[in-house]
């Protein structure tokens, strides 16, 4: 008999279902990756710093001031992290007592809010959004605020693509004053900049915003994100962050990307992707295996398919990788498609057309 040394792990970790990241599930299979909401195109960078024997600054000054300028806030309102994912976790680490405090999250949404809370043995209150409109259940949230320190809201929401109205967010900020933090995950906000809540940071001390360089800035590979809040919250988070979270090459590349010319490039790429999304929607509308297309304000599209399982597998076999959402709350038969280049979108449409033609009149779909 062998001892099972893993029994030494905390029970909540033994029981934990870890995050199923796109790259963990899909590996490097296929040649058209539309499963992780990454940018389909990349830029080349030359490292300005080439000596690495010294530790970096914990919070690299130029990186912080560049991001603060980009957003229009003060540097002491910005914390740089290893992706937005680290921001999600630091907030729980700093604000929630294990087994006593709770977070609220509103599925279907990004799973890391729940998983990070579970890692820290913090209570998770799940308050689903209304099916198909994906609006927040505000009254249910209001009556469940006991012991809640953090409420995570993803805007635009992943994977549904909808926007939560400013009116609803302000309502939440008002009812939780001095009680809970409203954490708005704006990972995809560059695709719908008018919906950002950054201008409300001045007014609300309980507002926290998460940002990332992984999406519109096309830098998922370097792992760099930001947490924005009033300076006293940033000070608290700086107490719990690891000593050197941002490596020298990361701050070098991220700072270069925040120069005005790169920001303009990023914005023109966002325009292209938003146009590709419109193009893709128009094509999908004419394909018979498509049951429903949800409105999206981000670089992905949630689509309900007849025969979704066969479609997912057929595309996988052809090297086109989507994200299966079927097991998520209220997302039966849904696949999420990251918006790729026009060529990648065309390849997807061609395969779906062929599939539809070959399967017409099966399982309830007819010619459109
Ligand atoms: N928030 C949302 C809504 C996301 O979709 C993701 C990544 N898929 C993240 C945060 C994490 O982003 P990062 O790469 O900055 O850790």
TrEMBL record:
Obligatory cofactor(s): pyridoxal 5'-phosphate
Listed pathway(s): Amino-acid biosynthesis; L-histidine biosynthesis; L-histidine from 5-phospho-alpha-D-ribose 1-diphosphate: step 7/9
Keywords: Amino-acid biosynthesis, Aminotransferase, Histidine biosynthesis, Pyridoxal phosphate, Transferase
Reactions that this protein is recorded to catalyse: L-histidinol phosphate + 2-oxoglutarate = 3-(imidazol-4-yl)-2-oxopropyl phosphate + L-glutamate
Gene Ontology BP terms: L-histidine biosynthetic process
GO molecular function per UniProt: histidinol-phosphate transaminase activity; pyridoxal phosphate binding
SUPFAM superfamilies, per database record: PLP-dependent transferases
Entry keyword Transferase: yes
Pfam families: Aminotran_1_2
Residue ranges occupied by any Aminotransferase class I/classII large domain in the UniProt entry: 47-351
Signal peptide interval: none
Superkingdom per UniProt: Bacteria
NCBIfam families on file: hisC
Family of this protein: Belongs to the class-II pyridoxal-phosphate-dependent aminotransferase family. Histidinol-phosphate aminotransferase subfamily.
Protein name: Histidinol-phosphate aminotransferase
Taxonomy of the source species: Bacteria, Pseudomonadati, Pseudomonadota, Gammaproteobacteria, Enterobacterales
Record gene name: hisC
């Amino acid at each position: 008999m062998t001892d099972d040394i893993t029994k030494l792990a905390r029970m909540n970790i033994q029981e934990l279902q870890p995050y199923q990241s796109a790259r963990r599930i899909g590996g490097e299979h296929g040649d058209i990756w539309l499963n992780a909401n990454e940018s389909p195109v990349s830029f080349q960078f030359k490292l300005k710093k080439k000596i690495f024997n010294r530790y970096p600054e914990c919070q690299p000054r130029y990186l912080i001031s560049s991001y603060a300028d980009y957003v229009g806030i003060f540097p002491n309102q910005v914390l740089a992290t290893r992706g937005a994912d680290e921001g999600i976790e630091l907030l729980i680490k700093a604000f929630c007592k294990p087994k006593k405090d709770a977070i609220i999250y509103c599925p279907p949404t990004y799973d890391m809010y729940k998983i990070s809370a579970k890692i820290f043995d913090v209570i998770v209150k799940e308050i689903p959004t209304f099916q198909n409109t994906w609006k927040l259940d505000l009254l249910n949230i209001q009556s469940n605020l006991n012991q809640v320190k953090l409420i995570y809201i993803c805007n635009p929401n992943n994977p549904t693509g909808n926007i939560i109205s400013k009116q609803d967010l302000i309502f939440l900020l008002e009812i939780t004053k001095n009680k809970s933090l409203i954490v708005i995950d704006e990972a995809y906000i560059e695709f719908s900049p008018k919906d950002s809540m950054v201008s409300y940071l001045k007014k609300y001390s309980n507002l926290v915003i998460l940002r990332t360089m992984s999406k519109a800035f096309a830098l998922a590979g370097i792992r760099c994100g930001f947490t924005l809040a009033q300076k006293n919250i940033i000070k608290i988070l700086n107490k719990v962050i690891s000593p050197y979270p941002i490596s020298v090459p990361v701050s070098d590349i991220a700072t270069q990307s925040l120069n005005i010319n790169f920001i303009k490039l990023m914005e023109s790429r966002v325009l292209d992707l938003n146009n590709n999304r419109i193009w893709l929607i128009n094509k999908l509308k004419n394909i018979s295996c498509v049951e429903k297309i949800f409105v999206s304000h981000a670089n992905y599209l949630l689509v309900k398919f007849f025969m979704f399982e066969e479609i997912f597998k057929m595309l996988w076999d052809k090297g086109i990788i989507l994200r299966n959402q079927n097991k998520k709350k209220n997302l039966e038969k849904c696949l999420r498609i990251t918006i790729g280049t026009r060529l990648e979108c065309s390849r997807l449409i061609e395969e779906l057309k062929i599939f539809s033609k070959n399967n017409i009149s099966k399982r309830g779909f007819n010619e459109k």
